[in-house]
Amino acid sequence: MMIFEWVPNESVGELVFGMNREDCRKIMDSEYTPINNNSTDVYYTIFIRLGYDNDDLLRSVEFCGNEKGYYDIRYHGVTIYPLTKRQFFGIMDKNLFVKDKWGLYINYKFNLSIGWDDSANTMLVGRLNYMHDADIWLEETKKLDTLFPQLKKGMDREKSRKILTGHQYKLSQNGATDSYAEYLHITFDERNLLESAIIKY
After folding, report:
1. How far is CA 20 from CA 33, 53, 56, 182, in A?
2. What is the pLDDT of residues 1-14, one digit of tens each?
């Protein structure tokens, strides 16, 4: 069993938030699969996911395999995961957590989320402001999912820009491609008519 001592907003075990991806992979020393547009390394054999920012720096660690007894997550030397909900909130103050619509309990000060369901329990810990940034990301993707169907092939470039910049998305132009919020990429032909639109989260 692996033991991880968690220091809120700073580290979990040997993994330090802000550490580069290659150093994290050396520490994990296990087979991994990159997913989510290469923003996450999943270690399926030990049920851990490491999330990275655009600079390939560690921003979150998620534990998803408590039923297998793979690891023991500790806070000030006391096990906090895996535990039942009652055990966990016997240690952590439930008043410091907010329950979201998916049933996860989130602590914004410690950047921790934890959930219990019938299939598997999960706990995610992140760097400073991770949960706040995640909320912003969810709002951005929700808006983009709504606006994306309005983009039609053959649409004038300026018209597409009005749709998106009108919703306060920052435009980044690289030649024939317009990008918004790092997730939406629109390519135009030589007449500045929309040729393709790709959204990646």
Report:
1. 17, 10, 6, 20
2. 889 999 999 999 99
One domain for residues 171 and 114: no
Residue tagged 């921003």 (tokens) = 59
User: pLDDT tens digits for 130-187?
Assistant: 988 776 666 777 777 888 899 999 999 999 988 887 655 667 788 899 887 667 889 9
Q: Which of 120, 8, 128 is nearest to 63 (CA)?
A: 120
Residue 19 near residue 57, CB atoms below 8 Å: yes
pTM of this prediction exceeds 0.85: no
Cα distance between residue 49 and residue 39, in whole Å: 10
Distance CA 37, CA 186 (A): 17
Range of the domain at 185: 142-199
Cis check for the bond before 34: say yes or no (omega within 30 of 0).
no
Same domain? 113 vs 34: yes
Inter-residue contact 66 to 76 (CB < 8 Å): no
Is there a single domain that holds both residue 181 and residue 110?
no
* Distance in angstroms (rounded) separating the CA atoms of residues 196 and 183: 14
Phi, psi for residue 25 in degrees, rounded to 5? -65, -35
- Count of beta carbons in the 10 Å neighbourhood of residue 82: 23
